[in-house]
Amino acid sequence: MLINVNFNELLLELDSLSVYRNLLNDSVIKKLYELGDLIYKKEPGTDEFIKKYNEFFFELTSGSIQSLKEHIIELILFDENPYSRQSEKLPFENIDKVLIDAASKDLDRLHVISALTSRKFKDYALENICKSESEKRFIDSLPAWEFDGRSNQGKRKLSQNCQKMIDVLVSSNKWGECVKNLSDFYFTNGSGIFARYHAFVWEPSEKPSLRGVEFPDPIRLSDFIGYEQQRLEVIENTEKFVRGLPANNVLLYGDRGTGKSSTVKAIANEYREQGLRIIEIPRKYLVDFPAVLKLIKGRSCKFIIFIDDLAFEDSEESYTVLKSVLEGGVENRPDNVLIYATSNRRHLIKEKFSDRAGFKSDDPDDEIRAQDTMQEKLSLSERFGITVVFSSPDKKQFLQIVEGLVAKRGINIDKDTLQREAMKWELMYNGRSARTARQFVDWLEGSMKLKK
């Protein structure tokens, strides 16, 4: 459907936004508003028009998106407002009808705005602003902001659910009629940053916040060779969690390089479309755990709090915080949150021989109930409902992982040569592990391609 854009009504369309009013704070929309304001309220000179036009063009094309329609659609998908927040919690038929009506009208307004093209602006300037042929040449030379066959290189890959919703809006003749589709999208994917990203890192600063990860590790469960039984236990627990069934916190512990952290990240990628999100909290920031829980409590998405390489000194306050969350303090851990942690240590708090001094000591400063202290230190790992052990592979398992990776990548090499080179690599570098196997295959693939 061809949409006629009346420049005199552009500002009214933007000012009339009610539910999606946050979009007016977007830098691109601000520059568009300034351009429209210049045209509507003044009789601008060619120089003023060119300046505002190029400011808008620069802002629009500064990111990976180079289409106004594409930009507005992403703003709609990832906006957090009264309608999107209610939609993520309730099915469409239970949403306040006033909000539905307001959202539908906003979507129609945004559809009109999205139809603006660079050609429309330039034609307007040629007819109403230019006073000489030289000015017309300047206007004609202004860059267009519609691009055909744009490269996706460097562009963040959106989820399948996001892409489906984008396709619905792109193919629609009236965005207001897509209000139910949009509500269903929020219901499945959440709203705001939780619809935009599926992986986050907690970053304390003056204003502690979750940082969405633009390009998370793309590893998938199908990429792994070996440790199938260990992963199956974590997968089954996650399946229960995303379906709303009772599930356990999980501790993955064992030797370095065996794929513990990669397993958690792969699971987050695997269940992204089902509303699973992952938040990594660096160990030193575990004292902020309550602040993180406050941000995600009551959201529709399911959250895995990921703590990598977990181990504590006995004096750390974060130990007490984590123990309280695992056990359930005054404020319970929300039902939409699980903790997945990895560690190279079976007992997560370092125990010293001095801890045992209280068993038999003449020092008045030694603890009388030393046994209680020892048990307290050993008990943290037991507070995880499921513990999965990742041990270093033996020679046979190591070679099976190597051979599996080589087969996946289609590398053609004699089996005896492969095994001989793999064992040489293992001796020279980091010992037998899944990580060492992958590093060896990376080297092998690069070396073979270099010789061609």
Automatic annotation (TrEMBL):
Span of domain AAA+ ATPase: 246-363
Gene3D superfamilies associated with the record: P-loop containing nucleotide triphosphate hydrolases
Pfam families named among the record's database cross-references: DUF815
Source organism superkingdom: Bacteria
Alphabetical list of InterPro entries matching this protein: AAA+_ATPase, DUF815, P-loop_NTPase
Entry-linked SUPFAM superfamilies: P-loop containing nucleoside triphosphate hydrolases
Protein's UniProt name: AAA+ ATPase domain-containing protein
Biological source species: Acetivibrio thermocellus AD2
